[in-house]
Protein: Outer membrane protein
Amino acid sequence: MRRLFTILVGSAVLVAPAAQADVFGLGAQIGYWDSELSGDVAANGGSVDVKDELNLDGESSNQLSLYLEHPVPLLPNVRVAYVNIDQTARGRLSGDFDGISDGSDVRSDLELEQLDLTLYYEVLDNWVNLDLGLTARDFSGELLVQGNGQSSRTTANAVVPMGYLAARFDLPFSGVSVGVVGNAIAYSGDSLHDFNVYGQYQLSVLQLRAGYRQMAVDYEDGDDRFDVEIDGPFVSAGVVF
Structure:
């Protein structure tokens, strides 16, 4: 992982800005994500389907982001983003899972939390906007399953480097644009990706967005493994200065 981190840092340096911001810019977004959940969580050799067995099939969540852009050559721009997914449900196991027997009625609590720090450069800044950089994602996941007098706690925690890309295409004189934002990494059997596509309308300092986001985590931490996918539509509102 250290070698991969070095490679990604080097790549970010190589895309040092062909077009950096002409003035200081500041923006913030707050959004509502109507997400659905699927996949498996494994612990101590057993696994459970979070949707079909635990009924953790989806719930709304908030997503936040903040960015700062500047005209200083070589120094990257900064973006911070946060999302927290917290769900509770009741279901029934269709097999043994980490000491809880087959057929048990269970209560499950799942929390997935991530905080991103992204350093990026503006490579293009006209009607086509392109940003490239590197994200450090502080990811944590916890699943607590309780039933039949037993309980199981599955956890994963890591700070993961990810490649970052954001592209936006502005329609002239309309305030309307379409875009895509993505983070991704795959290394040594683990993989994470997080993409969203959106349409945007901007009026003065106000930005309104609607789109679709997909996040997938396949990460192993010791005997615990999260292999889940969260996706669904989102809306957001923000301000830019």
Summary: The helical segments are 2-14. Confidence is low (pLDDT under 50) at residues 1-18.
